[in-house]
Amino acid sequence: MKHYDLVIIGGGMVGASLACALRPLIDQYRWKVAIVEANPLPVRSDEPLQPSYDARSTALSYGTRLIYEQLGLWQQLSERVTPIKHIHVSDRGHFGFIRMSHTEMDVEALGYVIENRWLGSVLHAELAGTDQIEWLCPASVTEIRAAVGGMHMQIALPQADEQDDKVVEISAGLTVLADGGRSSLASQLGLGEHVSDYDQCAVIANITTAKSHQGVAYERFTDQGPMALLPLEQGRSALIWTLPEGLADDVIELDDAGFLALLQERFGYRLGRLQRVGERFSYPLALKWATEQIRPGLVVLGNAAHSLHPVAGQGFNLALRDLMALAQVLAEGAAEDQPLGDLRLLQRYLKQQQQDQSNTVGFSDQVVRLFSNDQPLLAGMRNLGLVSMDMASPIKRWFTEQAMGLGIGNRQQSSALDSSDSPGK
Q: Is 35 inside a domain boundary?
């Protein structure tokens, strides 16, 4: 059985970002690290990524930019990001709206939109330079259980020339579960979670509009659920359209003309006529919050820890703040010669992040539920609130700070991972 100091299950954006955040510590303490990822690693090439109209994307808050700057990665990431200069929030059929601008906050942008594959390629390139990190990929964890000094796992590795997978056993002082919101391993471990179903599905696609988005992110609330159009490169906008369960499948199956006509009717003409739609995807929506995020030798991160409604764009940004807090605590523990999986150390991490998690999850959930209710009295009060908020600078600033990932409890972590010691600095 091979033993690692740290095993990260899930090499996507969260798992790879954690590895990048820990890179100085991995090099300093010569930790042996494994990243288990179900998908094959992209083939490394000096050729630039070819453009794809249908590339999936993620909204990065301004606070997330500060984190990637701290890690020495923002300069490269910024080559392929689209800044969000303004945010326009409206309620379909009602008069209230809020307009937020980067100039009011004295920043370059309120946030950014990045294609997932570009973010992934930058993260993987950063991790390629150390022999302390081993990728088990493509591979899957078929069994995980607690053991003395950490966790014990069975890993299935597909073999090209054989019918059966190769199964290996490994152990780890600390295991990080970052394999997404549908993690079977969380269920296998019996980790509890709170689930609140939105009874909605998200329809995801890229849209071309007649008018330039000019760096404006639109969030529009309707009687069927919220929708967002986020600015992208090449004149595209990323659509997130939430619809009641049962209706989403019907909408996806429409031909392009029918889909665009229905979307135009729901969104309006702020961006002129909708001209093109790419491939459509759909998935069910629910607020999931793990009630047990740590155990001795185990931490749950990302969507496995908390899955948020996508319209508010807070999920990945919260996960990044979590992993930075974890990296900070692990740095403190290493300096104190504590085992990585020590429960007291992990409790320190969770205590530090509980307020941020509670604030962010609550803010995202309450906004969605408030604007998904079309009762006349509530709608009227809601729109008066929007008008008042747009006029009242302190309240509007607070709301903007939440969207930027800079609210109370979201403060930047600093310590052993100071930017002067980070890779690339």
A: yes
